[in-house]
Amino acid sequence: MRAMKKAAVLLCATAMTASLAACGGSNSSNGGESKDGKPGGEISFQTWNLKNDKYTPYFKDLIAAYEKEHPGTTIKWVDQPSDNYEQKLSADAAANSLPDIIDAGPSLMYGLAKAGALMNLSKEDPKAADNFYKNAWNAVTFKGNGVEEGAYGFPWYVNDGPTYYNTELMQKCGLDPEKLPVTWDDYFDQANTMVKSGCGAYMSTMLGGAVDDYASAGIPIMNKDHTKYIFNSPEAVKLLQRFVDLYKDKGIPPEALSAQWSQQGEFFQKGSIIAMGGSAYSAADFKQNSPDLYKHLAVGKKISNEGKSATVSYEMLAVNAQTKNKTLALDFAQYVTNAKNQLEFAKKSNTFPSSKGGLEDPYYANIDTGDVQGKALKVTLEAVKNGYSCRPAEFTDANGKDYLQQQAALALQGKQTAQEALDKAVKYSNEKLQ
Amino acid sequence: MGQIDSIIARSGDSSPDRPDARPRSGAGRRRASLGTVLAPYLFVLPAFAIVFIFVIVAALNTFRLAFTDSTLLKPGKFIGLRNFVSIFHNDYFWTALLNSTLYVVCVVPFMVILPLILANLVKGNSRAMGFFRTSFYTPVVMSAVVVGMIWTNLLDPKGLVNSVLESLHIIHSPIPFLSDRWLILFTSMFITIWLGLGYYMVIYLTALANIDDALYEAASLDGAGPFRQFIHVTIPGVRSTIVLIMMLSTIAAFRVFNEIYVLTNGTAGPGGEDITMSMLIQKEGTGIQARTGYASALSLIVLVVVGALLVLQQIVQRRGEDS
Description:
The structure holds two protein chains of two kinds. Chain A is globular and about 75 Å long. By secondary structure, chain A is an alpha+beta fold. Chain A has helices at 2-18, 56-69, 85-94, 106-114, 121-124, 134-139, 167-172, 184-197, 211-215, 234-248, 261-270, 282-289, 291-294, 326-336, 339-349, 362-365, 372-386, 397-412, 418-433, and strands at 41-48, 73-80, 101-104, 141-144, 147-151, 154-159, 163-166, 275-277, 297-300, 313-319. In chain A, strand 1 (41-48), helix 2 and strand 2 (73-80) form a beta-alpha-beta unit. The longest helix of chain A has 17 residues, at 2-18. Chain A folds into two domains: 41-159 and 313-360, D-Maltodextrin-Binding Protein, domain 2 (3-Layer(aba) Sandwich), CATH 3.40.190; 163-310 and 389-433, Periplasmic binding protein-like II (D-Maltodextrin-Binding Protein, domain 2), CATH 3.40.190. Helices cover 45% and strands 12% of the residues of chain A. Chain B folds into two domains: 3-65, no CATH class; 82-322, MetI-like (MetI-like fold). In chain B, helix 5 (127-137) packs antiparallel against helix 8 (181-209) and helix 9 (213-221) runs antiparallel to helix 10 (226-237). The interface between A and B is large, with 48 and 52 residues.
């Protein structure tokens, strides 16, 4: 009996420890697809973090208008909180209960597409590409490593931002606020001037730990067929070495080695760093939270040797490959992302549309550049028009992004060379592609 | 019908003076005895069902997954020991193992000794002691996120700790509590100890209450002061509790997650050098592209290491008792 008790206790203890990794009803409507090819029946449409006072009226009106135009259709709108949205999607996908239409960014969608959970719209609707800007369509197109090449969602709203500069701090550090850096050479030249001035400030929290840094220097991140990463070229090593040297010269704050986006803002508002990347509407936050800083703000483009932003972010609407009402799901996703509705939503949400013609709307042509916020909006508009997303969808936080940041941080600390850091990051990311 | 049953049956039939005694049929007696036999199992059944489904089945699934290349969305196929080979070639695994082991080595002694001293100091029924007991227990009920925010604000380069030390001219530049690999780890250990003191103190208080006061009186009559009473009466009196706390704190320390995660905003510190085993499992085993097979293999390794540590403790304890 005692032996049995011991065995039972051991089994329970074993189970409780080993079950650490074992943590893992259908949202998809059951249909009513009409047989005449016209949209009919019911679908679920999932957004994230958009059900609030600001956006709820827009979506209610949008859905009501669609249902009125298409009698016999019902759109069930669900919204998920932003916290743990990836976990929610993962759980739904694992349980085969994804909604009919899903809203997310390309890096989340890539995993779903790779698992065959999303519809390849290039096959389902080959003409859809003509309705969107080319860079937006490229951002939602995946290929390589078991993913059938194609667009796995309709591009929706787009965003980017300028680089903000603290002009008062620039002057204190011997820099000319009229000559904001444009290329990486400009950036490191000004950073060296700042270091030599002994003003005690840092240039920014950039440290060569993001693929944006390399892409904006004209360094390719992946090969053309997306089967392997190649950002450990001699040019990339040279760029990372410049960050290593700047860190040694105390031009990058040590906290940046593990800093998050939110901390960059804190550093900038405290007057510890000269420059920070932000959104077009960060200026409004500065005006409200740091009025003194707002008086000394300048707005510049993202640093790039190519003259265009590599950090444009795209949101997309994908259709569940297992939907039981394909006609309605495709039609409603196109309706939400058509030029008219995108423009209306972009104006409401302070973002930009990805549908063709949207950026030429008078709303954007008549931006008043008389204040910092207007200037920021203008710079962002140009970035969205000419820029692109350099970050491959497969380069997710877990599959390379965090690892590159960590390896770059180790190189800055002198624990490995720049070459070793990038070689390791490329090797790790390539292994994750399998 | 067995002999005992027939005796019970006879005694039941021949008890006319008992008000509740009624003639019973043979089937009724069988139902009663069956119910008596099944009752304890029925009481245990709900708990067992929950443990079976959510712990045992999940654990067995972890064993199975550890030998496959499955991801969250794909079942995968059997790949033998390839996950383990891959883990042993992963630099971060060795870093995580080192950090988690260091956590056990540094935290467990404090978790065993400090709460015992505290419990000894705050035992008693006075209001003052009640106040101190509540104060020491307060961190236990605080959310890990709130604790993390409090400490990150205190230890920031421009936070209270650095500002005070600088204003007293003890340091000239801020101590990098949140950006140096070892300082992050030791700061996290400090927070773990601070959080756990009250919890283990309460367990010790219960054990202390069971020590007979006569033992202290006898020791006092023999001329033992407070320190010798503590060594020769208190410690032997709570020996089994010490072992329990040693085991609980070892498991908790090896599986540390919250403190480092919050202190480093989930980045595991500069270069990811503060990663622990639980953080590594979380990193590999969550998200849309989660490698559930790989994460399961990591979990098995944690199981083996924790099991080995517990066995080692048992051996050391038994040797101590024998000697």
